[in-house]
Structure formats: structure tokens, C-alpha cells
């Protein structure tokens, strides 16, 4: 696989010279809350070679919140077309902002998808454990189910809970931006 990392400073120079196309693979709600002005939104679940804008003669750079989902997107694209040269923005939009580069903000805030998944799993584990102690021990099976789900997600890279949470109303915005 030919995935290279790019720093926010180098990406800014490429964007200033119109040498790169930037793809944001976060969810619509995250994008609506804040995004790089020149980024095109293509959520990770829909990213594919045929959903990319024309980038002929330009570098293809993928970014997300912190760099993990964008790395997955790069891998997904390369599995489809191994001849692609893709770049992953180091540290995602978090590092972009930390480096002083501008973002467009709506004033609304939503947690990044990975944090929403972590919060949901944590609350469900707490609930199942509490119910197992005060109710029936059968509730402890819920913790086993959550553990199996985490193992499956870790081994395959597929997180059904993440896909479900991405469809929640707070992660949506009107239209594709």
C-alpha cells in the first residue's frame, strides 16, 4: 500500500498552490460543526473510488478528526485501486487547528464519532453491570456481547455500532456539503 502522511503545514502549502484535493471522511454532523474550507465531505461509510471528486494531476489527501478514520479510508481506497497515491493528514483536523490553520465553524458542537461510540459502549457496560448486580445475573451477558462486539471491530475494522450512531439525527445535517 502506498499511504503517505502529510503535515498540516505541507497540506496548507499544497492547497494554497491548488496542488491537492482534500477529502473529509468524518460524519455530516462533525463536518457541519467545523471543517477545512476546501475539504469535500465524503463520510467513511460512503468513501469509494467512484465517489471521489476529480483530482487529476493533484495530490489526494484524506482527513478526519484525529487520523484514524482517514487512514481506514486510505486503505479502503487502495484496496479498490492500488495505483492511487493517497496522503493521510497527520493528526486530522485536531492537528490542523492546533497548527493555527483556519476552519469553518457553525457554532454547533458534536462529539467525534469515535468518542460517541466509546461513550455508548461505556454507558452500556455500566448499565449491564449495574443490572447484573441489582437484577438478574443474566444481564451480565450484555457485557459479554459488548466485549465480543469490540473484539470483532478490532479484528475486522467493521464497527456496526459506529455505523448505527453515524445515522443518528445529531450526526446528520441537511444535504451533502
Main pleated-sheet profile: 5 strands, parallel
Order of helices and strands: EHEHEEEHEHEHHH
Number of strands: 7
What is the name of the CATH class of the largest domain? Alpha Beta
Could you please describe the fold and organization of this structure?
- By secondary structure, the protein is of the alpha/beta class.
- It has two domains: 3-105, Rhodanese-like domain (Oxidized Rhodanese, domain 1), CATH 3.40.250.10; 113-171.
- 46% of the residues lie in helices and 14% in strands.
- A five-stranded parallel beta sheet has the order 1-6-5-2-4. The protein has a two-stranded antiparallel ribbon with strand order 3-7.
- Helix 3 links the parallel strand 5 (59-63) and strand 6.
- Helix 5 runs antiparallel to helix 6 and helix 5 crosses helix 7.
Topology:
Blueprint: E1 3-6, H1 8-16, E2 20-24, H2 28-33, E3 34-35, E4 39-41, E5 59-63, H3 68-80, E6 86-89, H4 92-98, E7 104-105, H5 113-134, H6 140-156, H7 160-166
Parallel strand pairs: 1-6, 2-4, 2-5, 5-6
Antiparallel strand pairs: 3-7
Quickly describe the structure:
By secondary structure, this protein is an alpha/beta fold.
List keywords for this structure.
177 residues; alpha/beta; Oxidized Rhodanese, domain 1; five-stranded parallel β-sheet; two-stranded antiparallel ribbon; 7 helices; elongated
